[in-house]
Structure formats: structure tokens, C-alpha cells
Amino acid sequence: MTIAPVTISSDRLEVVDFTPPFMTTSAGMLRKWEKTASGLLAFKPLDPWAALCIMVTVVVAGLVFYLIARIRRMANVSDGDDKFDIWNSMWIAIWSLLPHGDEPSVRSTPARIMATGHWLSCYILVTMYGASLASLFTVQSLDSDITSLGDLLTKPSINLGVVENEFIFNNLKSHYDAATGTTYDKLYQRIQASGSVLKSSTEGVLKVKKDNLILLEEFPVIEHNVRNDANCDLATIPDTFMKGGFGIAFRRGDPLGKELSIALKEMQEDGQLEALIQKWFPQTKCDLYGDRASGDSYLTPSKTFNLLIHIP
Fold this sequence. Notes:
8 strands, elongated
């Protein structure tokens, strides 16, 4: 008896018996996630807490400018800064977020010291914001118009990979007939020509990330890798093929097969199988099709603070 992700196929049914499928499956395509930018791009790089911190910083800076003006006015020091009211003070703090600054400018030593620190902080914030916004437009090297196996076959520049001696490779190999020229025949020819027959799924995932390879793999394996990738750098193409199911294989005629089939059916009916699927394939932050916000592109308070404390 074999309990493993064994796909029920016609070739295997000739030599062993299977229980009914305990999990539906199909062949899919694993790719490196293509980053896209959408929505209100001007606000997308800002983490909500970072935006709040920026607003608070501007208000506090404006109040400090105003406080300096009040103190100099009370001390009868007439250098221009004593004439600043609350609106001028706030305007200086807000305008500092723009690279070129604006009038009115401060003239007293205390206000200039405050302004220097505030302008430096604003310059760093604007620079980091620009870098974060630019990263949202970064598109990894993969054609965005690939939505099916047919699209993939029309793009010879994209490398395909498949794991040796697994269901997809064996199925393509056993049914290959150059004379018929079916989609699967063309797919097998493409794989053989590229030499991308891999030893394991782990090797395939590494090549997907490093070399922008598209890996042909059974969909549950793809889903597990996408959902559990630490940086959400993987995604799958919506189209699937070779639809089938996983079953428990046992020796032909073994009476244990009937008992297993009944037990699996009971587990399906009372929800135990669905609970196991949810346990091992949870709905994580990583979307199967790469449609999620990238936290790495956010400008967060911690990133800003770490940069500020490392400035010489």
C-alpha cells in the first residue's frame, strides 16, 4: 500500500488498484510573481502608521517654529522670526516636505537649527518615499500575457521545467507521439529541447526564483509552495491541465482497498478531509495568483527610524 501524493492515471491503474480520489488535482504552472502597481499609487508606498507619523511630525515642527517666534517676540528680539504666526509656522513645516523649500525662511539661530534638522528629516522621507514608489513599478522578467498553456507554448524564450519521474513528466513521455502534434506533444518536445528536466520540486522552485523558469507541477504542490513562501515571491498561472486526483494505491485485489475507500468516503462526508486540506493549505497573505500588496515596498516608521539613527 502506498499513501503519498500519487495521481491516479491509466498507466498506474493497469498494475495497481486505487481508492477513490481523496483530493482533486491537476497540473499547473509555477512562476515567479510579477509585481504590478495599481490603485492610488501616490499613497500605496506609505504604511498607515508612517503616514500618521509624518503628519504628527509636521504639526510638531510647526508648533516648535511658532514657539520660537513667541519666545523671541516676548524677548523683544526683532529679526523677522518674531513676526511668525501659527499659519506661517505650519506652512514652513509643510513646505519642507518639498525638495526646494519656500519662503518665508527662518533667520534666527534657534529656528535655523530646528529647520536644519526638520529639512534633513523631510529630505530623507521624500527620498525613501520616491524609492518605495519606484519599486511598485518594478516588473520582474515574465510576460504578463501568459494565462494558459497555449500562451506558454507560443513564447519560446521562456524556459519550462518539469520534475523527472513524476506524474506530469511520465504522462507526457508515455503518450508522446511526434506525428500527432497535440499540445502535450509540443510541450514534451519543448521540455526535451530545453533540457530542463529536474531532480526534485525543491530544485524547480529555486530555479523559478533565480532563473524565471516556469515549473510544471501538480497543483497541490504548487499551492503549498506559493502559500508558504516567506516573501510571497511565487504565483501560479490560472490555467490548469491534466485534471485528476490523488488516491491511495494498493496491491490489486487487496481486500484492504474496500475498507480504505469506505473510510475515505466517511472522512469526506463528515468534513475531516476538508479540515486537513485547510490545515496544510491555509489561506495566508500570499495569494495564489500574486494579487496582493507587497509589504516590502511600504515606507514604515521602523524603516525610517533605522535609517535616521545610522546617519553619521
